[in-house]
Amino acid sequence: MNMTKHDLRLLKLHEFKLGHNASEASANINRSWGEESIRDRTVRSWFGKFRSGDESLKDEEGRGRLGSLDNEQLHAVVEQNPRQSVREMSQTLGVSIATVLRHLKIVGKVKKLDKWVPHELNENQKRRRFEVCSMRNTNDPFLDRIVTCDEKWVLYDNPKRSGQ
């Protein structure tokens, strides 16, 4: 049988009314409903609430998950200042840092050289990079002197020495 949050809260209130302390209450609940049904720390915090006179079994306002984030709003904030940190974005948007990071991944943004950029290149960027790579200077063929190996670039420059 699965216990709902409300059922577990009712059991905590029952244990509190019986005069048990938090450790005894969590042990009793776990013994009856299975190990790891409830944590001792959770029972302690609810007992503190009950001791203060609040025997309501409802969650407090403002607890739990924050509201969702609109990807268009996040995109506008990133485009406005692509150099801002995730912390600054979370404060601007009023959500957690984890939420901002998750949505940045969804919209395809990654941080490169301290700037949020698209993860994928658009067609214009691909074309421009191809043009730059295709340009060859006949006086100094720079690209002919680059040796690539396992994604590491090494500049090979072996100038000819004149005879002495």
Structure write-up:
The chain is mainly alpha-helical. Helix content is 47%, strand content 10%. The protein contains 7 helices and 4 strands. It has helices spanning 5-17, 22-33, 40-51, 71-80, 86-93, 97-106, 123-134, and strands at 109-112, 115-118, 146-149, 152-155. The strands form 2 sheets. The chain has a two-stranded antiparallel ribbon. Strand 1 (109-112) and strand 2 form a beta hairpin. The longest helix is centred in the N-terminal third of the chain and has 13 residues, at 5-17. The N and C termini lie far apart (94 Å). The mean pLDDT is 79.
Nutshell version of this structure?
The chain has seven helices and four strands, in the order ααααααββαββ. It is mainly α. It has a two-stranded antiparallel ribbon. Strands 3-4 form a two-stranded antiparallel ribbon.
Structural descriptors:
47% helix, 4 strands, two-stranded antiparallel sheet, two-stranded antiparallel ribbon, mainly alpha
